[in-house]
Design goal:
48% of the residues lie in helices and 21% in strands. Helix 2 runs antiparallel to helix 3, helix 5 runs antiparallel to helix 6 and helix 6 crosses helix 7. The chain has a five-stranded mixed β-sheet with strand order 6-7-5-8-9, sandwiched between helices. Strands 2-1-4-3 form a four-stranded antiparallel β-sheet, covered by helices on one side. The protein folds into two domains: 117 residues, Beta-Lactamase; 146 residues, Alpha-Beta Plaits. This is GGDEF domain-containing protein. GO terms for molecular function: diguanylate cyclase activity. InterPro entries: DGC-Regulatory_Protein, GGDEF_dom, Nucleotide_cyclase, Rev_trsase/Diguanyl_cyclase. It comes from Pseudoalteromonas marina.
């Protein structure tokens, strides 16, 4: 990696200097860059990698925010102010395009500073790519590939955590199980493509029906679950009614006469995962036995 020379840059017309240190020697700069590389390799979380890089780079450039945009979404450092002028750099490794690194700064970037930042990017790209790969693997392990919802494995982990919090800290919650009515006939009559579209539509309905504190899961097929951060039956009723109303309003689901049956229960401090799941499942059975397209508590 070529040496990174730390310069000063005058802001045209202002008579002052950007905060770039001119007192470092090339050896000190090389040592600092090596230290940056070592620090960047201490985390596989994209936001942490950005934070480490930003802390180092802020010694060179007084930017107000740092953002990384990729196919995984947008990540940025905490307290980023993105109202300043954006300076966009493409990050690549060979022919692989990782994404765009965006600095937000009130000061203009001269050619020398741009060159310096591009040199620093060579220290960032490999740790950043490793963090991106880890994020993708983690997502595959915890997300349903069709709907993007959390999967059954993630449900088991989160349910166990919530039960432990319920026992130790008296943090009650509710479990809701959902099953699509008439879904099998959609697959049988119209094929799996329409069936998949229906499942994705229902996932959208569920995400639109819950609060930020609630979590949605797909177990597989047309079976779903929601963990609700509220111990009140009334909250479950409100969420259930909202889901059924959105399903009714969906042109795709209405066209194929797909509705939803729902069962829910409240967690108790002495519950285990089997007990709370069994009660919610009995609530779902009651909904099915009552003619479907309804919600029942147990």
């Amino acid at each position: 990696m070529e040496n990174v020379h730390i310069l000063t840059q005058r802001v045209s017309g202002r008579g002052d200097f950007l905060p770039f240190s001119a007192e470092h020697t090339p050896n000190n700069e090389t040592t600092a860059t090596h230290e940056l590389v070592a620090e960047l390799q201490t985390s596989l979380v994209i936001e942490d990698v950005l934070a480490i890089y930003a802390k180092f780079t802020k010694k060179l450039l007084n930017f107000t925010g740092l953002q990384f945009q990729s196919t995984l979404g947008t990540a940025q450092t905490s307290e980023s102010d993105t109202n300043s002028t954006p300076y966009i750099f493409d990050l690549t490794i060979g022919r692989e395009h990782l994404g765009q690194l965006i600095y937000f700064s009130k000061y203009p970037l001269g050619k020398a500073i741009e060159s310096k930042l591009r040199s620093l990017h060579s220290a960032l790209v490999y740790p950043l790519r490793n963090a991106m790969m880890y994020s993708r693997v983690l997502k595959l392990a915890t997300k349903d590939s069709l709907t993007g919802l959390n999967n059954r494995s993630q449900f088991n982990d989160i349910l166990s955590q919530k039960l432990e919090n319920c026992r130790r800290y008296q943090r009650p919650f509710s479990l809701m199980l959902l099953d699509l009515d008439n879904f099998k006939q959609v697959n049988d009559k119209f094929g799996h493509k329409i069936g998949d579209d229906t499942l994705k539509e229902f996932a959208t309905v569920l995400n639109s029906s819950i609060r930020a504190t609630d979590t949605v899961f797909r177990f597989g097929g047309d079976e779903f679950a929601i963990l609700i951060e509220d111990p009140e039956f009334k909250t479950n009723q409100v969420v259930s009614e909202r889901i059924m109303q959105f399903v009714k309003q969906s042109s795709l689901m209405s066209k194929h006469e797909v509705t939803v049956s729902i069962g829910y229960t409240l967690a108790m401090s002495n519950d285990c995962d089997i007990e709370i799941f069994s009660r919610a499942d009995k609530g779902l059975y009651k909904a099915k036995a009552s003619g479907r397209n309804c919600a029942k508590a147990y």
